[in-house]
Amino acid sequence: MASLPATNGKNVIAPHTVILGAGASIAMTRLNAEKFGKELPSMDNLVEKVGLAPLLDKNGIDYYGKNFESLFSEIKEDLSKEEIAQQIEKQIYDYFANMEISDELTIYDYLVMSLSNNDAIATFNWDPFLIQALARCSRFTHNLPRVIHLHGNTGLGVCYDDSVVGHINALCSTCKNPFEPTKLLYPIGKKDYTSDPLIKNEWEILKAYIEESFYITIFGYSAPVSDIEAKTLLLEVWEKNASKGLAQIEIVDIKSKEDLYETWQDFIVRDHYYVSNNIFDSYLFRYPRRSCAAFFEMVGMLRPKKPNPFPKLMTVEELYHWAKPLIDEEESGVKYSFNVLKGETK
């Protein structure tokens, strides 16, 4: 069974867990284009963006006006189209695998640096942007969140023999053989989260975090009706969270507050939720690396703290140097003082 990382310092507090959907990567690429200008597709325009139309036309498959999830479900259910389904999967994998994060500072760099090794980011996305952001932030510090891949990822490799995962271009630390690509969960009506050992373990890790989390941010994940399995797994473990009566659900999405409440109402306790259409307005980015501690100070101790939002920066190195006082305090083991950065109050 997966477990949370062991911690020994005085700063231990329940984790902040972030759940990413396609909307998060789309928001990132709108602000900072993919390095080579490739566009991140959604389920509504995937056929066009990935260039699947010639393959579908050649095989007489009608795709006009269809959401790709519905289309691919139909193809997978037809056993005579098994080879076509495999060709589609390979073309999608190759498209995402060849994407590269912009050289500019991105939302994902801020996201990675906004959390500590007590926290986690779980992503449903296939693109390698988050892994690439984590890699370049780790040049400066390893006090960074755990990243969990719920649908597999083109930037992630695995050695099934030794149960080791890592960057797709790395070697297994045990047998020294190259990693093989992870399997991706492609969009079908009923997804299988248990047969692949890697994906099963990733979900076990996420469940361990959700059960302990004091703050959950859902960024660009719509919890589609077609993926009821995922929402059910999350809700089952959230119900076991002993702190959920005080904990907060934060939703960052461009949809209306009413629609988002309708989607996530089963997770919301009373009015303990916040909705924003901009990640920079989130609690996570207004109290980087201190979100759970700051929220507890407000709801548990009635001592609200002045926000310390990220300033406008240019490089990952500048981002690290801005966060370094916070990182140093975390690693020193002293109790959070909330006056490490200019502008915070005691």
What does this structure look like?
- The protein is an alpha/beta fold and 346 residues long.
- It folds into 2 domains: 20-32 and 105-150 and 199-332, 3-Layer(aba) Sandwich (Rossmann fold); 46-97, no CATH class.
- Helix content is 37%, strand content 11%.
- The protein has 13 helices and 9 strands.
- The chain has helices spanning 22-31, 46-50, 53-58, 68-77, 82-97, 107-113, 129-137, 197-212, 228-238, 257-264, 283-286, 291-299, 316-332, and strands spanning 16-20, 120-123, 146-149, 156-159, 164-167, 180-181, 215-219, 248-252, 273-276.
- It has a 6-stranded parallel sheet with strand order 3-2-1-7-8-9, sandwiched between helices. A 3-stranded antiparallel sheet has the order 5-4-6, with no helix packed on it.
- Strand 7 (215-219), helix 9 (228-238) and strand 8 form a beta-alpha-beta unit.
- The two termini are 40 Å apart.
- 38% of the residues are buried.
Distinctive features:
3-stranded antiparallel sheet; disordered C terminus; 13 helices; alpha/beta; 6-stranded parallel sheet; 346 residues
Mean pLDDT: 89
Q: Counting H and I runs of at least 4 residues, what is the number of helices?
A: 13
Rg of Cα set: 20 Å
Task: Work out the count of structural domains.
Answer: 2
Low-pLDDT residue intervals, each spanning 5 or more residues = 1-10, 342-346
Spatial ordering of strands, largest sheet: 3-2-1-7-8-9
Q: Can you write the helix and strand succession as a string?
A: EHHHHHHEHEEEEHEHEHEHHH
Q: What is the molecular shape?
A: globular
- Give the CATH class of the largest domain: Alpha Beta
**Terminal-residue CA separation:** 40 Å
The description of the largest β-sheet is:
6 strands, parallel
Amount of beta strand: 5-15%
CATH architecture label name of the largest domain: 3-Layer(aba) Sandwich
Helix content: 25-40%
β-strand number: 9
Class per helix and strand makeup: alpha/beta
Query: What's the CATH topology label of the largest domain?
Result: Rossmann fold
